[in-house]
Design a protein that fits this description.
about 500 residues, alpha/beta, two-stranded parallel ribbon
Length: about 500
């Protein structure tokens, strides 16, 4: 073992002695051989120049572009599915035009774009229940799991091996013993703390598991990019859950570091649950190597009485040619005429979104943005604060949520349409992570979200331009340094 450590130490010493040449080679690769946005190129060059050695390690962990064609070869089934949807797009477009309700008026083009780029079929038979508290959300989830008769499909970015997962496991094991199919899809990085024997134990009880983008040699997580950030549960094709809550005690407000955890999750009953099912199956097929699209039983229609809410389930990721969720945000912002309410733990927009938001604020639209009062990722937080400063200059109203940590991710526009799910307002969600959102075209649900936003303001502090301009020199330095790194955060 000592010989191995000696070899590693020798290799590192050689790298350090020759770091100037290593950085030069990396700079050439980044500039000439990798297709990156100019901002990201400059950010990496600055990191390599000012942080030799450390910058090299950061590039190994954060910076490498994967061979997407090879990595996502198994996901060719997704292209087939979307191709079939595109064949029907003109027919569906005409249907949307003919049956356009009051709630979707003015957003037909957005619905068509989502259909073309993300396979987001528009359905109007849905009922939505909103959860902002972890206890309420997981109580509702477990209640629906108890009702399962055919299958439970669960996908989370983070699952902690704690009391909450113990409670969920108890239900899953019992349902599996009753003959219900249970599948758990988890992200290799987000669930790295769970020991392999836990997954083996679950498989021993008949629960199927699959790991998205596992670690190298089953232990070394050398990359934090391209993570599956989606949180989806589908039960019997009738009920779907999607939103920001992961599985862990902190999401119940039990972690001392964060205190109360303010998040947003939705229970959807209706055809949109089947859209979430398709999203889960696509990810499951990739991670497991199976093809569940051959089984008709996973696409049966729900039988419960449903509502009348119009919904599209949209997704995006590094394997997509389109930044569908980002583009939806931009479309909604650019078409707002009265107000825009945004809640996000990370506000690191790209240039397109930032310009659109500033234009909306400067033109008199009531733009309100709410972020946490405390960081869980310091660099991202201070980059967020710097962009908040720009929005204040443009005339937006900005708030820090003081009652714990706010993790909700969503936008409401003009009391007519909203989009909530797993995607933050940052470059990582737009380009590097796999995300899923529900776009809701209904006044009733949108106004529920807006009422929640207004109540959250009562537990928040408004960031005034005077206060921001008088921030300390230390904060200014943190902001500027973090903003330089924003394209790679």
């Amino acid at each position: 073992m000592s010989a191995v450590f000696d070899a590693i130490a020798t290799a590192w010493c050689w790298l350090w002695d020759n770091m100037i040449y290593v950085n030069m080679i990396l700079a050439i690769v980044i500039v000439f051989f990798e297709r990156r946005e100019p901002r990201a190129v400059w950010a990496w060059l600055l990191v390599l120049y000012f942080l030799p050695g450390i910058g090299f390690l950061m590039y190994l962990i954060l910076g490498q572009n994967m061979n997407k064609d090879r990595m996502f070869r198994i996901k060719e089934i997704e292209d087939v599915v979307n191709s079939e949807i595109r064949k029907q797009s003109e027919e569906v477009k005409n249907e949307i035009e003919m049956t356009e309700s009051y709630e979707t008026k003015g957003y037909r083009e957005l619905a068509y774009y989502n259909l073309r780029t993300s396979g987001g079929v528009y359905t109007e038979d849905n009922d939505v229940t909103i959860y902002t508290d972890g206890h309420e959300k997981f109580d509702a989830l477990i209640e629906e799991m108890e009702r399962a008769q055919k299958y439970i499909h669960m996908q989370y970015y983070i699952i902690r091996d704690d009391e909450l997962f113990e409670r969920i496991k108890e239900v899953l094991i019992r349902k599996a013993a009753e003959g219900v199919e249970v599948r758990i899809l988890y992200d290799g990085m987000g669930c790295r703390e769970i020991r392999k024997k836990q997954w083996r134990m679950l498989r021993g009880h008949g629960i199927q598991t699959a790991e998205f983008f596992p670690a190298v040699l089953k232990k070394a997580h050398l990359r934090i990019n391209y993570r599956n950030h989606r949180k989806i549960v589908v039960i019997d094709g009738e009920v779907g859950f999607v939103g920001g809550f992961n599985v862990g005690r902190e999401y119940l407000g039990l972690a001392e570091k964060f205190g109360y955890w303010r998040d947003t999750h939705m229970k959807i009953i209706g055809s949109a649950a089947l859209a979430l099912q398709i999203r889960f199956l696509l990810d499951w097929n990739y991670a497991s190597g199976n093809n569940l699209f051959l089984e008709d039983k996973y696409f049966t229609q729900q039988k419960r009485p449903t509502g009348s809410t119009g919904i599209q389930i949209i997704s995006s990721g590094p394997d997509s040619k389109w930044k569908t969720i980002r583009d939806d945000y931009v479309y909604l912002i650019s078409h707002a005429t009265d107000h825009i309410y945004i809640q996000t733990p990370y506000f690191v927009p790209d240039e397109t979104m930032m310009d659109t938001l500033k234009m909306a604020a400067a033109s008199g639209v009531d733009v309100r943005i709410m972020i946490p009062c405390k960081p869980d990722h310091p660099f991202v937080y201070w980059a967020t604060y710097s962009y908040i400063g720009d929005m204040l200059q443009a005339g937006a109203s900005c708030y820090t949520y003081d009652n714990g940590f706010i993790h909700t991710k969503g936008i409401c526009v003009d009391g007519k349409v909203c989009s909530y799910g797993t995607a933050n307002f940052d470059i990582r969600s737009f380009q590097l992570n796999f995300e899923v959102n529900a776009v809701i075209y209904e006044e009733k649900v949108t106004k529920q979200f807006e009422e929640i936003f207004i109540k959250d303001i009562e537990k928040s502090t408004k960031i005034t331009l005077h206060k921001y301009n008088n921030r300390s020199l230390v904060i200014k330095i943190k902001e500027q340094f973090s903003r330089l790194l924003s394209p790679i955060l």
